[in-house]
Amino acid sequence: VQLQASGGGLVQAGGTLRLSCAASGSISSINTMNWYRQAPGKQRELVATISNGGNANYADSVKGRFTISRDRAKNTVYLQMNSLKPEDTAVYYCKAAGIGYALGWGQGTQVTVSS
User: Partners of 105 in the beta sheet?
Assistant: First the structure.
């Protein structure tokens, strides 16, 4: 599975961004699509997950502010980020996963939130 992430940028605190992750290749093997982020000096953390059935889960730090969604026709997953905070600054990665294994990672897109 090949993933192409886009949509990052610089935004002021309280602003919004929408990330996109377009998948190609062995789409049928995907069980979940995930967004991770990694801030400087920190470990990569899981931000949001969406299953094939549409069930979504979020890290506590983004609940109520971020929304993950998928457009099956476009093989694309989105991360709508509202009420952004400086602590959301990170490189965001999308990941496709089968059941218990990773299928591929996107290249990462930088999100910077200024205070």
Answer: 95
